[in-house]
Amino acid sequence: MTSPPALSPACLPLLRQGVVLGLSGGRDSVALLYLLVQQGVPVRACHVHHGIRGVEADGDAAFCQSLCERLGVPDELCRVDVPALAASQRGSLETVARQVRREALVDCARKHGVGVIALAHHADDQAETALFRLARGAAGWRAMQETFVAQGVTWVRPLLHCRRDALTRWLEEQRIPWREDATNAETDAARNKLRHVVLPALNEALGRDVTPVICRSARLQAEALEALDELLAEQPYKDPQGRLFLPYLEGKSEALRKAVIRRYLRECGVNDLSEEMVRAVDAILPPDARQHCLVLPGGRVARRSHRRLEISEKKTGGGDQA
After folding, report:
1. Structural domain contains residue 222
2. Is residue 219 domain-resident?
3. Does some domain include residue 64?
């Protein structure tokens, strides 16, 4: 008999405070729900109906409600028309659905005074995410973090060290049902191709299970970035008003300038920046640069003035030029 997957020791003290769990009805979140209940963790489940998969999505919602009733876990259902929202925002279904899930979980946590949100990502998700980010040209592997703070709450991934197969075996032995999303088996989406085509091909080519190796590389990269971030936090790159102090960057290498710019923009709420955008910001910083203003993602604008760089909301009606 397979032992229950162990929750991360680093996450346990946070979990015991009580958590909101993102419950999709799939294998991973169902396994995490049972493990939290078995550990006596006060848990509230939140299921998001994206309005994408019709009858199957209705079945997922009904399954989650029934499961929570059986386990005595309070649950909430959040319905959002993601296709309509994605059309209005001109965004991808996947990106908008992810944003909607995050917002729903944060709203649920705040409403009930819960400070911790649990996600059911595991080691195989970590490897797929690392490869996906690498293929997109992101800055290194950038591992998913086991714990992090965002939007005023603490997020935890207590299964990040577990393998997908181990979770599956345990659920099957315990005869615990879950919902299988049929789209997960399709290979038209990039993430699914990584899971079903690329990773198996890497395993075969290298004659080994590459997932632990990729996860280790992602962890090491994350540690290096964390160390850099700690060092930058001690540097006087901002003035008392919180603007980027451009004289600090004079004489610094391009690599260090880019690291400071990326950190500063992230502090100002500008995320998902490409290297091209960071370089574009760097290009407007010199006093003799012809351009002093740049439109950033998320409706923000970077403006250089009096040897400072300030990030502000884009004014409606024009005037700012990229």
Report:
1. no
2. no
3. yes
Query: Strand pairing of 43-49 and 19-22?
Result: parallel
Tokens 């944003």 map to which residue?
A: 99
Statement to judge: residues 116 and 167 lie in one domain? yes
pLDDT digits (tens, 9 = 90+) for 83-134: 888 788 777 777 788 888 999 999 999 999 999 999 999 999 999 999 888 8
pLDDT (tens digit per residue) in 9-53: 999 999 999 999 999 999 999 999 999 999 999 999 999 998 888
- 312 forms beta bridges with 301
How many other CB atoms are found less than 10 A from the CB of residue 150? 11
Full domain range(s) for residue 64: 12-205
Residues 34 and 164 in one domain: yes
- Distance, in Å, from the CA atom of 71 to the CA atom of 204, rounded to the nearest integer, reads 41
- Residue indicated by tokens 């703070």: 149
* 21 three-state secondary structure: strand
CA nearest to 200, candidates 128, 120, 140, 121? 128
User: Does the residue 1 lie in any domain?
Assistant: no
Report yes or no: 54 and 47 within 8 Å, Cβ to Cβ: no
